[in-house]
Specification:
The protein is mainly alpha-helical. It has helices at 6-13, 23-32, 37-45, 49-65, 68-85.
């Protein structure tokens, strides 16, 4: 089994941000549901930061649990691997 240097371990474990959710995203959801924009803005402005963080956590969990994360990552790894090899 290969032993990694501390630098390699740090590089392997370095996280990269995938996405985020903001209150404007939620306004869009409400307006798509037929809620007037002014009312949607009022609703969303009443969400606390703790509630927004909870929504973001649950979205991340749902993304991983439905395999959307892993399926997308698998496809993108293949695409980038081919591009790096010049196989485009």
């Amino acid at each position: 089994m290969r032993h990694f240097t501390k630098q390699e371990i740090n590089k392997l474990n370095k996280p990269f941000k995938i996405t985020s959710v903001c209150r404007l995203d939620m306004v869009e959801v409400y307006t798509k549901q037929g809620v007037p924009e002014a009312e949607a803005n009022d609703k969303v402005l009443n969400y606390t930061n703790d509630e927004m963080e909870a929504i973001a956590r649950q979205m991340a969990d749902a993304y991983c649990e439905t395999n959307g994360f892993w399926d997308s990552l698998e496809v993108l790894v293949e695409i980038f691997d081919k591009e790096r090899k010049g196989d485009k």
